[in-house]
Amino acid sequence: MLYLNLDLQYFAADEKTEEATPKKRQDTRKKGQVPKSQDVNTGFLLLLVFGALFLLGGYMKGTMTGMYELAFSEYIHRDLTQKQTHSMFVEMTIEITKVIAPIMGVAIVAGLASNLLQVGIMFTGEPLKVDLKKLDPIKGAKRIFSARALVELLKSLLKISMVGVITFAIIWVNKDQMLMMSQKSVEVALAFFGTITTIMGLASALALLILSVLDYTYQRYDHEKNIRMSKKDIKDEHKNMEGDPQIKAKIKEKQRQMSASRMMSEVPDADVVITNPTHYAIAIKYEESKSEAPFVVAKGVDFLALKIKEVARSNDVITVENRPLARSLYQHSEIDQPIDEQFYKAVAEVLAYVYQLEKKM
Fold this sequence. Notes:
By secondary structure, this protein is mainly α. It folds into two domains: 20-121 and 134-238, no CATH class; 247-360, secretion proteins EscU (name from scop, 3-Layer(aba) Sandwich). The chain has 13 helices and four strands. Helix 3 packs antiparallel against helix 4. The longest helix has 41 residues, at 186-226. It is elongated. Mean pLDDT is 78; it is low at 1-13.
């Protein structure tokens, strides 16, 4: 029964039931693993591109018409030489660029805007690294027949159906006018079909954007589910962030030793050591050029206090016994810091006594 309880606790600790920590989120973001919907990109792209076509249609038509007029009114009369061919090619390229460049610019802006809206600014090369695990046929088969693949299939069928229904509905509503275009001029017919095509594109883009909201919600839910952590993972993360307790203890011990060694090197320069007499020892120094008030160069209790007194004795530093002052200075003073104002009078009396004693000696 005991083993069964331990096994249950072990499996419970390994279950991914906890939300990801900020560090886990940051690490997954560095790897390029962020919630993102391609439908948002597609919807923005179609909406802005067809919007640009709707606004710039007249300009594009005029440019293309001008190209045809120039070709059949001027270029057709030119001599077919290398220089003339190069000149015509350059002029045509410039005119075509005037038509294509605005649409390409809008497409680039749409791509950047949709990604910034979902992911924000992110630079990472992790997804570009070669990963041989991706070539594993077993894992590949699992991805193909996974629940995520089924969702993507249903989503694709839904998108095709939506776009098909919208396109058919617009054509069906305008079928009578389409049939009448055979009796209209080419210019009128082209304008009509261009308008219908733009309407179909904008309607499809709006439908995809509505669908992309649902898709992004699902992608975010799936991402949160994939980065969940177990209680053991969280403990391991905290342990790695804080470091091994044994190593931390050794570092602190080393720091204490270095601090004690540095303090001991300052004791010979102290003016006086105030003691408890056995448990506390505080080395005081007054140097007017360094501080307006006396400051503590070393302090300690028990063993460290004995070492301070031993070093002071070896270097002829006067020791003064004052139990309440020693305790108070130890509790309210820091090393290399001036003493508190409340101790000025008491320490001044001690220093005065020390200076008189040194003068007699």
